[in-house]
# Entry
Amino acid sequence: MKKFLLFSLLVILSSLNLYAQNSPKREFRGAWIATYTNIDWPNKTQTPQQQRDAFIVIANHHQQTGMNALFIQVRSQADAMYESAIEPWSADLTGTQGLPPNPFWDPMKFMVDESHKRGMEFHAWINPYRAVGNTANLPNFSPTHVAKQHPEWMLTVGTLQILNPGLAAVRDYVTSVIVDILKRYDVDGIHFDDYFYPSGTINDNDAFNADPRGFTVRADWRRDNIDLLIKRVYDSVKSIKPWVKFGVSPSGIYRNSTDPNIGSATSGLEHYTTYYADTKKWLQQGWVDYMCPQLYWYIGQPNADYKLLVPWWNNIANGRHIYIGMAGYKVADPAQGAAWALASQIPDQVRMNRSYPNVFGQAIYNTTSVRSNKLGFRDSLRLNFYSTPALLPTMAWRDSIAPQPPANLTVTKLENNSVVLNWFKPPATEDELDKAKRFVIYRSQSPVTDLSNANNILAITPNDTTAYTDTTIAADVNYYYTVTSLDRFQNESLAANTFELLPLTLLEFTANKTSEVNVKVQWSTAREDRVKHYEIERSLDAGNFLIVGKIVARNSNRTEHYSFTDITSGITGTLYYRLKMVDKDGQFSYSQMKTINKQQNDEMVKVFPTVLRRGQALQLQVVTAGNNRMTYALFDHLGRELSNGVIPNTGTSNTRLINTRNFSAGIYFIQILQANKKQSIQLVIQ
# Structure
């Protein structure tokens, strides 16, 4: 008995160890937002503003859960949840098919933008063939709807009408809808669901007889009809926008068979024979980027066992991605049985997904189930499985070239105990696939950051910003930061320079005018350690900074106060100041910029060139002639006057040359005076 108990314990521990993985660095974390009959969104009785507000609540909720991709239904029955010249407005938006929203707005444009603001991909979810969900509603459809414009294209099965897949005109029509979306919206993916041929008796004799294409078996011909559209859509996507993905979410069982080369060890509805969708072929031919089978069953379910279906789909991936569709809507539903009453069901399924190499993530159906958080399954995702940010999986068959890394990373610790990171974008490129679209911020307590460890990912920016604020630092912890670039397919660049957080806290930094020519810069610090010195920098354009002062750090444990007075004789306009803090290892960080406004210039002369080589002649050209004497004075960056003179004012074509061969490289200022007018111009001598 003891031996048996020990053996059982080992089995349990081994099983737990199998599924106790750390969060992966890359994972598809999706959710479906269904609009058909207002399942998830929108509420057709609401105003456009209320609908927008409701979508933002949903988007925020998914972002907070940790989702990085959304499948949003924009075409459910040959209608449009967006402005379309091809198909009518959806009744699920306005209550009446063909009626535009009032006040007008474009939901798809809005949803794409809001998804991207939150760092989530937007996949336009399209039902390719469903035209009329219930023929009883057809009299209320818009006169422009395809079912009324082309009744000869319709196949009717029970109360459902679909576009006949056997017609070339239908394939042209569906493709035109998708091409229109691709050309007008910044979508990240085109997503088909499981509606192909419907189950039931199908009368497509006319289409088969008119265009059999050499097929004698009707089922093979029907599958080929679907194949033709799938391949054409994939080719169109790659041709029009090579960075957009194409995927399909079929029902969960391909075929039932004890032979894994044919199908899975199940006995449920087969989409190969019922819906005529040969998904295995699409993966083999490379006509999709991902497959998201709807495995809406529980672990151990008779006839359709989740734990048997996941490895089967993993094994037929053929180099493409498999994302598992999971049944959030069944959680805690009494009609679904005892297994769905277990709080561990969804967590165990996620663990299982992560144990297979070709399963790159999962998507939850539907949004309402995620928001309801039954049995805490959403909290399990948010607090456990999705607690660290995840990059999306790469698709090397589409693009494998990484963008250039960001440059000149700097880190500044502010008085509120937050840290500001700033960096430069990589050089611009015309190739959309090579552009840096987002950035990954890493933080670790080691000088060598392990970029493969998801726990070192602090954040993934939602766009191509060049700044990030870390508000989660702990006191007296030495952090190291670095940043990488991501392109459209989330290929990741090499890391920028690693930046160590300086051993000090900047409590305050100010800049104030104390006279017409003096600006007093002051700052306070705490916990200085190994700080070498501070450099005070000034700029006239917030981009090119000049060092105007340097003060040695005192390195004490008490609060220290510093000040520096900058003499700005001959300088007018807006002045920008920042503090550069340098440690004894040469690492440095910057404060936030402060601005000072001085009297604006009255343009009396033009000076050119303003950037010149040492010894190059400087030319002054009068812009506004007058009767009063015009003088100039040349100052160095410390405000010391180096030369002066009179500018003869005999007309606007008059010029005067000043030779710079006796000046060293640096920044200079020319001040022009005439009566009560004053003009200052910055020069750079290289």
In short: The first strand starts at residue 28 and ends at 33. The chain is about 20% helix and 30% strand.
